[in-house]
Structures are given as C-alpha cells and as structure tokens.
Amino acid sequence: CQPVPKPESRVEVCDLNPCPPRWKVTPAGPCSSSCGLGLAVQLVTCVQILHGQEVLQEEHLCPVAEKPLTSVPCVIRTCSYEWSFSEWSECSASCGNGIQTRQDFCLSSLTHKPVNPLFCRRFPKAIVVRGCSAGPCPEQEGPLSPGAELQPVTPATHPTRAAAGTEHGHQDLDVPLSAGPREQTKPGGGEEDTANRCSPCVCGNLFLNATGIINMTGVESRDCTVAIGRPLREEISVTILESSLNCSAGEVLLFSGRMMWRTGCRKLPLSLINSRTNTLIVKQRVVLPGNGVILQYNSRTATKKYYQDCDQQLFGPQGEIVNPVQLPDQRQEVVCRTFITVAPRQRISIRALNPDLGPEGNHTHFNYILVRDVSTMKTVVFHGKQQFLWQSTGSQAEIEFHE
After folding, report:
1. Do 105 and 128 meet the contact criterion of CB atoms below 8 Å apart?
2. Worst-scoring range by mean pLDDT, 33-37, 226-230, 238-242, 342-346?
3. What pTM value is reported for the model?
4. Considering the domain boundaries, does residue 175 fall inside one?
5. With bands split at pLDDT 50, 70 and 90, how would you rate the model's confidence at 21?
6. pLDDT digits (tens, 9 = 90+) for 178-198
7. Residue 214 is part of a domain; what is its CATH number?
8. 210 and 290 in one domain?
9. Residue 98 in 3-state DSSP?
10. Range of the domain at 357
11. Where is it found, in Gene Ontology cellular component terms (predicted)?
C-alpha cells in the first residue's frame, strides 16, 4: 500500500444507548464445612456501565429470573472421620420384650482406629438402643428388665372397683402442645373421672394429672392401651390395686417407657412399678370379657436427671417446635431433644414450616434434624434446607437437633 496515501485514523460513536443492568458475582467466600459437602456464600449485586464506569443499581432493575445463587456447594476435602458401631448385643430378655444395645465410636478413615468423639460431632449418629422380642414367655410374663422395679406394697384401704370410677380426675388431650401438661378441673371445683365412670372409654386416652386411678376392667376390646405423662423432671410409679386377668388364657399386662419394659400377669395385685421416666404406656390384653386391672398412678420428682436442660416434653394435639438457638461463643457439645407424647389412639405428624437452618438466618448451629419413631425405633435424618412431612406409626416421637 506504500504508493497509496494512508487515510487518517478516526473513531466514530456507534451506539449511544447504555448497556442494560446486569448481575455481578464476586468470588465465593470460605466453605461452611471443613470437610464433606458445605456451602460458600458469594456476593451478588446489580451493576450497570455508565460512561465507562460500573455503577451499583437496585436489584429490581436486573432480571430476577437470571439472578445467580448467593450460596454455592463446595467441598474442601473428603471427611476422614465417621461413626462406627459394634454388633448389637443379645436381647436383654430371654422371652417377651427386651432391649438391645451397641457401642458407638468415632473412626478415622485414614488409620481405621478410634479417635476422640469430638471429631465426629458434625455427623448424625444412629441409635444405640432398640427394642427386641425373644418370643412369648411360657406364662406370658417375662423377667424384670433393667430400669424397672417390682416391689410388694403394704395392703392399704383403697377404692373398690365400683368406687374407683368417681374418686380421681382424668384428663385427656384438651391441652395445647406445651413444655408441660396442664391440670384441668371441672367447673365447680370438683374433679370428675369420665374414663373410670365409663371404663370402656379409658382405652386410647392420655392421663396428665399428678395422680389418679385407671379402671381397665370391662373394656370391650381385647387390647386396651393408656398413656401417663408428666413433666421431664418427674417420674411415674404405678400400683396395681386389683387384677382379674386370666393368666392361663394368655391375658397379660405390659408396661413400656424409654428406660424399661415389663410384662406380667401373675402376682400383680398390690405390686409397684417404677418407670423412672416421665411417660409410661400401659397395655392390657384380655381374652375373656369383663377381665382387667385397676391401676393407681402417682408422680414424684425424679431421683436421677436423665435429660438435658435444653430438652422439652410436649403433650397435646398440635403445636410448634423451634430448633435451639446458640451464639458462636456459646457452643456446647449437647444434643437437644424434644419428646412428643399423644394419646395412644392418635398419631403424630411433623411438618417443616421453615427449614432454613443456615447460621445467617437464626444463629443456630444445629443443621441436622433426627426424628425417631419410638414404636419402631427407626430414625429419619433431615439436613439443610430440606422440607419434609413426617408421620409416626405410634403415639410417641423424639426429635434431636445436631450440628
């Protein structure tokens, strides 16, 4: 091109319209988990180029449907610790119902040796106690299981079967879900035991009074189940006032709580059962119409604390459960539990209304939820922002909040 004169260089404006606002993403911050799957927070802003400068704009000016996520998955390294368990022990009862236990320990995946359990605190731990059955006992009554006591009681004057129907108060599920049961009395100051006056109505009820008499004679169904509930700081004892069970026909009385199982038929009158917990389920199986037992229950302050300060015991047909809140400088190696007990004729449904367990929302460090069905001892784990609807097979459930 040398023989041809070179034209002058020029710059022409091609478009005077500014670029539309767009989303800008800054690099993600640190991962929320030191190992395994975690979340990293990234800053997302709406910006626009005006006169060659980046100007911050309001978010509604950017396309909402195209907004990037503020949290993205991240993995720093594979977790090198996990919970491991020994084999289940033999059933504690040679016949009837009992329990099985197993030991848990934190295992290093690198050395395959146990380490301090604190290394596994981020991971949910499976159950270490479960129910078991070794088949029916020859006389339909099994040996006393650990945690239960059967003691003779000095005979004392007690209401007869006819009088037992009107002397003690019965309280069903007319209370909201709360941290403790409420005592209710009938108008006029006198208590009336509807369940004992109409003994077939007893089955399937939940008794929340501090003391009372339960008449389970003359029920129409073969299986009759009642539950007794008190605050966590109390324990329940039951005295069998009368029994007309026919042991030879296979009739039996069963007691179950979180810490004991007990079945029996013979030598029941004037016997004492100590549950050592604040809830107790009594189930009666009869063959012949009209047979049954009359129980008197009492509650007292527990001799041993078997719960955490952050635990809750809830009764009632409905209510709200909020996971515990702890600040970073208040972190403790504590598993917070919620125990739910309803009437044996009812079932429990738990729905996650706000499943955001992130530390930015409510300052909680509990991001795993374990829901246990007490009747089957099966545990389901929910994590993160997972919405769920859980339903029980029985009338008792336990919830644990874990880091």
Report:
1. no
2. 33-37
3. 0.52
4. no
5. very high
6. 333 333 333 333 333 433 344
7. 2.60.120.290
8. yes
9. strand
10. 312-324+332-402
11. extracellular matrix; extracellular region
